[in-house]
Amino acid sequence: MTALVPDLAALLEGKIEGDARFDDYTRHLFSRDASMYSIMPVGVVFPRTTEDVVVAVRAAAVASVPVVPRGAGTSLAGQTVGPGLVLDFSQYMNRILDLDPVARTARVEAGVVQDQLNQAAAPHGLMFGPDTSTSNRATIGGMIGNNSAGSGSLTYGMTIDHVRALEVVLSDGSTARLEPVDENERSRRARASTLEGQLYRQLPGLVRENADAIATGFPKFWRRACGYRLDRLAEEFDLAKFVVGSEGTLVVVTHAEVDLVGKPRRTVYAVGHFTTTAGAIAATTDALSCEPAQVELMDRTILDLSRQKIEYAGLGDILHGDPDALLFVSFSGDDEDELIAKLDQLTDLWERNSHGYHTLRAVTPQQQTALLKVRKSSLGLLMAASEGTKRPLAFIEDTAVDPAHLAEYTTRFKEILDSHELTAGFYGHCSVGCLHIRPFVDLAVPSEVNKMRAVAEQIKNLVAEYGGVNSSEHGDGLARSEFNREIFGDELYEAMRSVKHLFDPGNVLNPGKIVDAPPMTDNLRDSALAPAKPFETRLKFEVVGGMRDAADRCMNIGLCRKSTTGAMCPSYIATKQEEHATRGRANALVKALSEPDPKAALGDERLHEILDLCLMCKACKSECPMSVDMATLKAETLSHHHDRHGIPLRSRIFGSIRALNRLGSATAPLSNVPGRIKFLRRIMQRTAGIAAERPLPVFRRRNLVRWNRERRPTGPAQVTFLADSFTTYTEPHIGQAAIELLERAGFAVELATGGCCGRSSFSKGLIDDAKAKAGKLIASLADGDTPIVGCEPSCLFTLKDETLAMMPGDARAQSVADRVKQVEELLTEAIDAGKLNLREDSWLAGRKVVYHGHCHQKAEVGTAATMALLRRIPGARIVELDAGCCGMAGSFGFEAEHYDTSMAVGSDRLFPALAAEGEDTVVAATGVSCRQQIFHGANRDAWHPIELIREVMR
User: Fold this and answer.
1) Which residues contact 348 (CB under 8 A, 6 or more apart)?
2) Cα torsion angle, 350, 353, 355, 358, sign
3) Which residues are registered as beta bridge partners of 924?
4) Could you tell me what percentage of the chain is helix, strand and coil, using 3-state DSSP and rounding each to the nearest 5?
5) Directed axis angle between helix 195-209 and helix 183-190, to 10°?
6) CA–CA separation, 837 vs 846, rounded Å?
7) What is the crossing angle of helices 490-503 and 195-209, to 10°?
8) Were both Cys, which of 478, 520, 526, 902 would link to 893 (CB 3.0–4.6 Å)?
9) Contacts (Cβ under 8 Å, ≥6 apart) of 476
10) CA atoms in the 13 A half-sphere facing the CB of 570
């Protein structure tokens, strides 16, 4: 901790409504954004009000500490890292204060997320025009700081075109409202003896004195997110628009009044398939002649990566052949016939000019889902191709030229990369001449750093040759600001330096960006990170560099901060705290594992606090483009925490869940009495930390094992059914239904009762115990060759995932993992083969069935098999909920200190989704935890999908 921290902390203490943190872990979490840079801040303030921002800016000035405003921290050029006091607007200042559908405006706090605003505007047929690929986490304040654009900029322009007024804090801590003013109003404001008054007095003269440089010095291409926009100020005295794109170096934006635009009722897509990337780019001119809304490119690198992820597997099912590149062309409007006519026009034009070999038409939302999901995730998918510290870096990814020159420009761009033996992924916005080209570079190698700089300079010169821009939507930041003097010329650059000095004479606001920047090769993240100290882990991490590099795969693009789709990251959704997102936890682990004694660091209580709210839902394993598996990382970390601090009683209890459930079954119904007596529940909470509010499972005396002994075997086993710890003792009817269905389908079923898979022990960090249990179960299963199925996803898929991490290289474990199948797959095949006949007139006919998938199932194999089985129910309407994690997560929801978080997660999307359903709607869920949470939090009974199939059997 620096010497400045005590003084700054004292200046803030008791004076802000929000929070201020100066511990080493928080500082490390905010030392990074989605760029290749890392700078340790002094501390972080999480303001709740404008007054908090005022206090923070004034305190920083007194302590001679810079201020670094920050939204979601997804900037790619290093705009939101710096050595001062970070202001994180996303945690608290995230309210939509007013939305006027008649005036088509909204007033928002700086931390409002773009999709959040779009959701609020959608019922009025409106939206915010700029459409970034990071719309599910990018904040409006960050978009203003960056002058973001996105795929729709051909139609809607950039953020600067949609800002009406800004409420800001100036560098001296005073506040101002920036908006367009006429000359009379400017003169009136100029009379004030304040910093704001000084701006209104001196800026007009600065513009006049530099009129020639302003007229000639800016790059000619319109799509600019670089420098200070003196060109716009010369057209109209509007300080709100002027500070857009200033990256927090001139003002701190607290509130924004923005324009909204009409949301087109329909959008249709033509997706051209091409054998080369150059061929796709060459087809852009024809596409633009049809007046599209967007023209987007995706090359083979992105396509191949998408095929490796469960989350994006749907794309492969709809593409034709094996394209080397795709060109997405969209048409938006209210008249579907007109849009279809444009699709016809483009298809005919491409065919006439021999562009591509196939054009896929995506007209309905259902046809577009898989396409758009991958297109919006191009950055993350490209990052997933990283190997160790060799990553696709953002330093030449934001250039733009006139689309008329794009094909030739891109050819020469690639020649430069080839001359340096660099590979790169190509994607982006062909419609506006902006391709995001990210070469793979290893910044831990000094020669690679030098190569990066050489390429940056060559590309900068190439851009200038074509009259393009070096920063077209991602800003200057630390990656490109160094070149601004050369790009704008001395006179215009000095005018920009004067602007900075006028707004910020003390150089308090985010210094080193846009003007007076350090070399682009300073403050590199990978170069600064100390080599990892070797130490032994209990689990095998299948990445270069072991456990630390498994955490350091995170490139901070912040997808774990989304909150409207998928399940990642449930604790962040509940708390909105950076440290409770996968990104925050991964960065915290990187810090711990970089310490001189990483084993001791893993026992640190502050680290344990950061990891504590991780539900181990495994959503990050599939939804994080980098596949950062926080559940496994947490289990390993907990094991080292136990080594240092001992194993808590409650962890031992939950780790022994199979033995406890077996005992509960053997002593039922007496064992169910404590769960119904409030006094005993309060004792359980005091002694073992088990939440008194949470209903306990009901033990069944006639469990699955007993039931199985009573029936006659049907022949040599053809299927092995896993008798998991929950289905067996608390929900045996589900297992019975599955086995009966399998036998009706002609399978002879063997019940595998060889013990616990180790999942419960694993989740509590009891890895040695989990390994022993898994080893015993594997030994009991290893001699067979039948498919292994089960009804509880967390237990079944442990055999495919955690067991292999605990028993790396074990041939028996691998053989068992290869045999694991979902029971739904076998039953669907049997129905389709006519071996199982379902009634047309069951009580489910005509009913709606909503299905909530288990997070582990989604992470490991997806929900397609379960949905396919449910869709076999005659007459039923099946809908899969996109309602995130239920929040239960096994033992997590039973733990007293986690109960509120568990319920908050469920209340975010799942409970409201179920509350919106009528009483006749049937709820289905594969996970025992999910069904418990649905009953407790939504007061609905949830069926296992297997039970529903049993219900409709003839």
Assistant:
1) none
2) positive
3) 851, 943
4) 45, 15, 40
5) 130
6) 18
7) 170
8) 902
9) 77, 79, 225, 226, 227, 247, 484, 513, 514, 517
10) 33
Token digits of residue 327: 């060109």
State the Cα–Cα distance between residues 29 and 46, nearest whole angstrom.
14
Supply 843's token pair.
């009580």
Residues 6 or more apart from 451 whose CB is under 8 A from it?
420, 422, 441
Rounded distance, CA 531 to CA 853, Å?
41
Q: With 0-12 CB in 10 A as exposed, 13-18 as middle and 19+ as buried, what is 351?
A: exposed
Over the Cα atoms of the chain, what is R_g? 29
* 930/934 Cα distance (integer angstroms): 6
Mean pLDDT lowest for which of 171-185, 418-432, 529-543? 529-543
Contact 128, 113 (CB under 8 A): no
Please state, in angstroms and rounded to a whole number, the distance separating the CA atoms of residues 924 and 921.
10
Contact 153, 132 (CB under 8 A): no
Report how far residue 876's alpha carbon sits from residue 694's, in angstroms, rounded to the nearest whole number: 33
What is the crossing angle of helices 823-832 and 732-744, to 10°?
Answer: 40
User: Could you tell me which of 396, 381, 423, 506 has the C-alpha nearest to residue 66?
Assistant: 506
SS3 category, 521: coil
Distances (CA, A) of 330 to 122, 367, 431: 20, 13, 11
Cis peptide leading into 669, omega within 30 of 0?
Answer: yes
Question: Could you tell me the sign of the dihedral formed by the alpha carbons of 441, 447, 452, 454, in that order?
Answer: negative
Beta pairing partners, 67: 85, 509
DSSP letter, residue 610: H
Residue with token string 């701190």: 252
DSSP state, 784?
-
Average confidence (pLDDT) over 452-474? 97
For the chain, how many residues are written? Answer: 954
Q: What pLDDT sits at residue 564?
A: 87
First to last CA, the chain: 71
Could you report the per-residue pLDDT of 236-281, keeping only the tens digit for each? 999 999 999 999 999 999 999 999 999 999 999 999 999 999 999 9
% of the chain with per-residue pLDDT over 90: 90
Residue 1 has pLDDT above 70, yes or no: no
Helix residue spans in 353-422 (DSSP H): 365-376, 378-383, 406-419
Dihedral sign (CA 571, 572, 578, 584): positive
Residue 227 Rama label (left phi>0; alpha psi -120 to 50; beta)? left
Question: Measured between alpha carbons, how far is 822 from 832 in angstroms, rounded to an integer?
Answer: 16
Return the exposure string of 472-508: e unless at least 16 CB atoms fall within 10 Å of the residue's CB, then b.
bbbbbbbbbbbbbbebbeeebbebbbbbbebbbeeeb
Three-class SS state of 8: helix
**For the residues 366-378, what does the mean pLDDT come to?**
79
Write the DSSP string, 452-501: HHHHHHHHHHHHHHTT-BS-SSS--HHHHGGGHHHHH-HHHHHHHHHHHH
Q: Give strand pairing partners of 750.
A: 720
* Confidence band for 147, pLDDT divided at 50, 70 and 90: very high
Predicted pLDDT of residue 150: 86
H-assigned helices in 320-395: 336-352, 365-376, 378-383
Work out the mean pLDDT of the chain and round it to a whole number. Answer: 95
Give pLDDT tens digits for 906-925: 999 999 999 999 999 999 99
Q: Is a pLDDT exceeding 90 seen at residue 381? A: no
pLDDT at 627 over 80: yes
The CB-side HSE value for 823 (13 A sphere, CA atoms) comes to 31
CA gap 468, 450 in Å, rounded: 24
